[in-house]
Amino acid sequence: MDIFATCKNIPMKKDEKYLTLQVLAAYFERVQLSVAGFHKAKKDADFDLKEKTGQPCDYFTYGVACSEVEIDCLTGESQVLQTDIVMDVGKSLNPTIDIGQIEGAFIQGLGMMTSEKVLMAEDGRMVNCSPLSYRIPNVSGIPRKFNVTLLKNDNAVTHLYSSKGVGEPPLLLAISVFMAIKAAIQEARKEIGLSGYFRLDCPATVEQIRLACGDQLVKSRK
Question: Domain named Aldehyde oxidase/xanthine dehydrogenase second molybdopterin binding: which ranges (predicted)?
Fold first, then answer.
């Protein structure tokens, strides 16, 4: 929408046929070709905030993910063996870019779910404030098999060219990794006679996984 707003203010756009010539003409006329603004999606006024009824958005972005993980009960390390994602992005304008956005958002969420734990000192300082201590996702943390599929769905979307926003929604799908890790820990606990509920806070760091697995070393620590 900002692009449309900018183009309306270019006085020479009607005289030049090609975009490159329009840009060149704008440059010599000192016409700014960038603009900042906000876009508010048009929607029917049928949402009642007080009653929580109606439709608050033009559309919803849906996605589903299935992840398979492996954990080391002795060290607490985890590895995502495979992740399969199916994402509804409407009618994708550029599938290559959209898939890249999905992969990037998922990996960002993966860090939030497994390694990016902020440690604070009593005086409010962040203790782990370097890449060595604050573990962000790296190449080794990416799923060994990473499959992303765009759901074929170009109907019932009233947005630009039937497309949907895809920048951040896939981040939430990383919960599949966290839950897979918890399921793996549960199986490890069964082998040593532990059953029932156990607490696993997010992110599932190496320390969290190691302590949750439970064994004689953990018992002696307690």
Answer: 16-143
